[in-house]
Write a structure and sequence with these properties.
The protein is mainly alpha-helical. The chain is built from twelve helices and two strands, in the order αββααααααααααα. The chain has a two-stranded antiparallel ribbon.
Length: 299
């Protein structure tokens, strides 16, 4: 066989593989472009225009929307949203870690799968319906107040709704599974022989957790924290229903700008401000997790 034919065949195979790879990437790239790049690009462009008097957009370039977004009123709402989201994330981590550890240490795979199914079971019901259910439970004539009064714990119904505590409760309930699942995945990958070896070498339980378990679980903690924090800070129905308008969060303010005030340019500026805060927090979180992992491994 001529040498030119032998060299042409592998080249043809490489070309076909390259084309197949490109065809495989095209659908994902098209989806990413259509539903991520273009919407963000439109929001970025709209933020530099101004709202028309009766709705719509006047295509006159200005930066007044960003100046308005830095008003102490909106900065305070953003800070309050960050605090609520951080508290929700911490509570989900405190509750989610022992839950994930309990599931990961069950003796049989069937039992672990059953427990995981119970964790994700709430996702089979619409999030809005579950939020309304909390309103029924927590209102002054609801199940919780009724049970406490029958038990003689209280004489007058408690104000359990329309405050920050109700909002945090609703967010924790809604997003706790998003913390449990990454933690379970990280704990399930740990080789039990590593823990046994650390104990055989004389390490106490606290040291085993600090030097063996923690470095291996940090990726799950970071992933779970991101999965909880990001939707919590921009959540709309929970602050609106359980907060009753008394708890203003940035997601509600942005929604009002688009749907009520019809000030799309200013709403777009608030979206970009929120995206910037999220990027900064996520970068700081990734850096902190890497530094903590390095410190633990050095010790």
């Amino acid at each position: 066989m001529p040498s030119s034919a032998m060299t042409t065949a592998p080249e043809g195979t490489q070309v076909r593989r390259l084309r197949l790879g490109v065809l495989t990437v095209v659908p994902a790239f098209a989806w990413w472009t259509a539903f991520l790049v273009l919407p963000i690009g439109l929001i970025l462009a709209t933020a530099f225009f101004r709202a028309a008097p009766y709705g719509g957009v006047e295509y006159t370039l200005n930066i007044a929307n960003f100046t308005r977004a830095l008003d102490p009123l909106y900065i305070g709402v953003l800070q309050h949203s960050v605090v609520i989201a951080l508290i929700t994330t911490v509570i989900c981590l405190i509750l989610g870690y022992p839950t994930a550890w309990f599931i990961a240490t069950r003796p049989t795979a069937r039992l672990r799968m059953l427990l995981l199914a119970l964790v994700i079971l709430p996702f089979w019901t619409n999030f809005l319906i579950r939020t309304y259910a909390w309103m029924i439970l927590l209102n002054r004539e609801g199940v919780v107040n009724g049970a406490l009064r029958k038990l003689g714990v209280i004489d007058q119904p408690l104000s359990l709704l329309y405050n920050d505590y109700a909002v945090i409760l609703g967010l924790v309930y809604g997003y706790l599974p998003l913390m449990v699942l990454p933690l379970y995945a990280a704990l399930d990958r740990i080789n039990p022989e590593m823990l046994d070896a650390a104990r055989d070498l004389g390490a106490r339980p606290a040291r085993v957790i600090r030097t063996v378990t923690l470095p291996l679980v940090i990726p799950g903690i970071v992933a779970g924290s991101i999965f909880v924090f990001v939707p919590s800070i921009g959540n709309i129905p929970v602050p609106d229903l359980l907060g009753g308008g008394h708890t203003a969060m940035i997601g509600n303010v942005i929604n009002d700008q688009f749907m009520v005030a019809r000030d799309w340019p200013f709403g777009s500026a608030l979206v970009l401000m929120l995206m910037l805060v999220l990027m900064v927090l996520l970068i700081a979180q990734a850096y902190a997790s890497r530094r903590s992992r390095e410190i633990v491994l050095d010790e």
